[in-house]
Amino acid sequence: MKILVVGANGQIGKHLVRFIQESEHEAKAMIRNEAQSSYFTELGAETVVVDLEGDTKEIAKAAEGVDAIVFTAGSGPHTGKDKTIMIDLDGAVKTIEAAKLAGVKRFVMVSSFDTTREAIQEANESFAPYVAAKHYADEWLKATDLDYTIVHPGGLTNDSGTGKVNVAVKVDRGQVPREDVASVIFSSLVDANTIGEEFQVVSGETPVKEAVKSL
Questions:
Q1: Which among 121, 168, 183, 198 is least buried, having the fewest CB atoms inside 10 angstroms?
Q2: With b meaning 16 or more CB within 10 Å and e meaning fewer, what string describes 43-82?
Q3: First-last CA distance in the chain
C-alpha cells in the first residue's frame, strides 16, 4: 500500500512516515517546501511539494497512484484564526475532494480530541475556532462515500511512545505521545475494521495493534 501523508513535516507526520517506511508499505510525504525533504529522503520516502492553500487539483495530482491518504496537517498553535480556517478546515476539505478526484477511497483524518457541537460551545475564545474547523472538516468527511477513519488524540506530548494506548469512541481526557498517535494511525490504515469509525486515543495499557483491532 502506498500512503500519501499530508502534513508529513509535522511531528506526527514524521513518525508516521518512519513507521510506514519501516513496514512493507510505502509513504509519499507531502511537504510545503523542498527544504523539508531531507528527513524523508533519508528514510527512502518519496516527497511531493504542495501548498495546502493552493488548488485542489495540485493535491489531487500528488495523490495520483496512492492507495490511502492521511491528513495530519495543522496550522499550529502560534497562528491566527485565518490560518486555522485555511489549513485545518479548507485544507482538509480540499484534501478530501482531492481524494475523490484521484480515485483514492481510503482516508484517515487526524482531528482534535472532542469536535462535538458541545465542545465548540465550551471552548474558550482562542480555541473555539480550531474546534469548529475540525468539527466541520470531520462532518464533511463523514458525508462522503470515502472509506474514512477519524482519529481524535488527547493532549499531545513529545515523550517517547510506549506502544500502549486506550482507544474508544469516548475515553477520559488524557495525554498521549505523538509517536503513539502515529502508531495508531498506521495500525488503522492496515486494519479494515476501522473503516467508518471515529475514536479517541490517550495513553493506556493496551498494545496499539490490539487496541485498534478491538474497535
A1: 121
A2: bebbbbebebeeebebbbebbeebebbbbbbbbeeeeeee
A3: 22
pLDDT tens profile 116-157: 999 999 999 888 999 999 999 999 999 999 999 999 999 999
Find out whether 109 and 72 touch, Cβ atoms under 8 Å.
no
Instruction: Of 132, 162, 161, 137, give the one whose Cα is nearest residue 151.
Output: 137
Amino acid at 73: A
CA angle 150, 40, 141 (to 5 degrees): 20
State pTM to two decimals. Answer: 0.96
H or E element that contains 49: strand 46-49
The closest alpha carbon to 171, from 150, 200, 147, belongs to: 200
Q: CA-CA distances (angstroms) from residue 61 to 29, 35, 99?
A: 13, 21, 10
Task: Point out the catalytic residue in the list 39, 130, 136, 148.
Answer: 130
Residue appearing with cell numbers 503513539: 180
Convert the pLDDT of each residue in 19-43 to its tens digit: 999 999 999 999 999 999 999 999 9
CATH superfamily of 2-213: NAD(P)-binding Rossmann-like Domain (3.40.50.720)
Q: Is 148 a catalytic residue?
A: no
